[in-house]
Amino acid sequence: MTVLILYFSGTGNTKFIAEKISRKLEEGDYTTEASSVETFDPEDVDGYDLLVFGYPVHGYEMPSFLKSYLSDLSLLRSKGVIVYSTIGYNGGNSLRSTAEILETEGFKVVGSEEFRMPGNDGLIISGKESDTVREVLDTDYNSSPVINEKVSNIAQRIGELAGNKVDENEVLKPEKKFTYVLLTPLMKLAFYLFEKIFVGKFRADESCVACGLCEEICPADNIELNNGKVAFGDDCYFCLRCINQCPVEAIQISRFTEGKFRFKGPMGNYRPDLLEQKN
Ligand SMILES: Cc1cc2nc3c(=O)[nH]c(=O)nc-3n(C[C@H](O)[C@H](O)[C@H](O)COP(=O)(O)O)c2cc1C
Ligand code: SF4
Ligand code: SF4
Questions:
Q1: Is the CB of 57 under 6 A from ligand 1?
Q2: For residue 279, what pLDDT is reported?
Q3: Per-residue pLDDT tens digits for 48-104
Q4: What structural domains does the chain harbor?
Q5: How many A from CA of 87 to the centre of ligand 1?
Q6: Nearest-CA neighbor of 81 among 150, 19, 5, 147?
């Protein structure tokens, strides 16, 4: 069985989980391809038997730009999809709503998992010596029993499907958590206001060395470097990649991020500039 693991990862958490799933499956003799949606052509899905799809939760939801990408993954629709999310603190009903989007697009959801990881939103306003940052830096995410168990659950589910031990037509939608049915609209409103307020507040300060990295790695093509000056547009995904990756920490959102921590992924080595170009 050949498994395609597609993910979007602003700051490295979701990619880290994709790679763990890939390694686990390859131990079990599966062939896998783990690829960012930024570099994988959605038309190029021949030869894959199952899709694993991962995303970071933004305001209790999947980032909205991923919806149109899913619409383009047409050839995989008749096959199963296992969906996973990464969260910082609470994902609300995001897995459930993503499963509903996938179903509307014609996919069959056959499993799901939610992974708690460092919250990239809180980290960019946390002091470099704060307890929050210390805890993230001191945690070995690779050996986390909770993360490893969830990765194993995904591998086990794929094993059951591959071995025809379960009905492949059985849809396993994530459960709806009723506590969040009321909270979700409030969270959506808060996130909408957050986006409106902060979309115009990104700036590169005087320490910018015009290296061009932010322009190169922005997944939304929302950054332009002209005559040594960095300009941000209004089409931001709020993935926080640019602010965390700038080599001289020049990118700020308002004043809140000045002198604060920059997150380079759970292992401290996330390099979105090295995401493999597949086509
Ligand atoms: C704009 C924004 C909104 C977020 N909203 C939530 C949220 O509603 N719940 C949550 O638990 N984490 C939230 N987070 C934290 C991310 O989901 C979490 O850190 C995720 O693992 C990041 O994955 P990535 O490193 O692959 O981008 C948010 C992060 C951002 C940037
Ligand atoms: S990554 Fe940082 S230093 Fe490089 S151009 Fe962007 S803001 Fe300037
Ligand atoms: S400008 Fe927005 S979309 Fe682009 S890298 Fe920065 S946060 Fe992400």
A1: yes
A2: 40
A3: 889 999 999 999 999 999 998 888 886 566 678 999 999 999 999 999 999 999 988
A4: 2-181 (3.40.50.360), 202-253 (3.30.70.20)
A5: 5
A6: 5
| Residue 182 burial by Cβ neighbours in a 10 Å radius (0-12, 13-18, 19+) | exposed
Question: Which has more confidence, 7 or 165?
Answer: 7
58 lines ligand 1 (CB under 6 A): yes
Which residue, judged by its Cα, is nearest atom 4 of ligand 1? Answer: 58
Mean pLDDT computed over 139-167: 90
Q: Which of 216, 230, 240, 242 to mutate to test the pocket of ligand 2 (most atoms within 8 A of CB)?
A: 230
Burial class (CB in 10 A: 0-12, 13-18, 19+), 12: buried
Q: Indicate whether residue 239 lines ligand 3 (CB < 6 A).
A: yes
Total-model pTM: 0.95
Rounded mean pLDDT of 228-250?
A: 97
Ligand 2 site residues, Cβ closer than 6 angstroms? 204, 208-214, 225, 230, 246, 248, 250-251
- Ligand 1 centroid to residue 107 C-alpha, Å: 24
Tell me the average pLDDT of the chain.
92
For ligand 1, the distance from its centroid to the CA atom of residue 121, given in whole angstroms, is 6
